[in-house]
Amino acid sequence: MRFAVLGTFLLLPSAALALDVRVYPAGSIYVQRSNPDHGCVDLVVHNIVIINDAKGDVVLQGAAVEVLKGERVIESRNVTASEIAATTAAISKNGQMATAELDTDFPWAALAAGHVTLARGSRLHAHQAAAVKNVFINVQEMPTAIRVRVHARGLSASTTIGVSQKQPAAYHSPLRGVWLLRSIPNVTSHHRWNSQTEFAVDFFKLGENGLPWKTDGRSAADYFGFGAPVLAAADGIVVATENDAVQDYDVRLRREGESDADYDRRLTAYNAAMQKADPYKALLGNHVVIQHANDEYSMYHHLESGSVSVHKGDRVAAGQTIGAVGDTGDTNLVHLHFQVSDGPDPLTARSIPFVFDDLFPPGGDYGKVVRTK
User: Is the pTM value of this prediction over 0.85?
Assistant: First the structure.
């Protein structure tokens, strides 16, 4: 994964190089134009890491995440020392399974490279770190930068990271007909809290019953959308595919008489084992990644077993069938996960904002039933 130290560190002279504040992943913060008619945008700062580079202990007192437009602070969020300690403890306890999901977004490799360990509270020993995750902020102006200020006893530090001003590129819908767009890029979506999936959307086909399944949803064939053609969203070159992942409904679905706790434990253990064996199959299932001329990559996940009809190196045209809607990977709900990323690897590249140019009527809202042309 690509991580880097961003910005500059401003420290009190008496505590030079005592605190190292970093924002991950590297690069600009992307914004979601949540209500462009009213100038509203929102953003997520996914990972802030505070490292004690001093020889002695440092006691954190809190942090502030400030949204800047030029030199002006237009919004801010305060994070208390107890909140930082609780987040750090949870990540440290669960490791790469933090918050019960594979936490590929947290910079474990960067910490290990610097021989840094996570602290157990707000007191950081030498070469220990604390973490802040997923700070969400909504503003009514387009910001230019994010500044993170950290306060500890007797010293402070800050770092600044830019906000991307790039306009989202337009893509065709990867499906035809009427679909429900769910898990859109806002705070209601699990996608938003990981940089790899932040701006992804999920397509579900609904029936006249208002549900995605005909009876009980306990098989892929019971879903209205199962097997629907998935189309390339733009011209490009296929750079990755997977076609032989299969779903195990006996494991995925709750068994008769099984408690919530037992089901959660069983499914968590199964997911962990699958992710260890092959994280791409476990999380994405069958998938296709296409590189486009603007050096962006469209990604299509959870495709039907055996349905992928393209291969690495193939040139595809917008609208060409590349697979079919399925249920493979970390889901038992038949749907299409679609996103656009800044690199070819779905587990390390960053999801980036995009727009569809063929929703009907034009400008059709995410999060509603939409029709493509």
Answer: yes
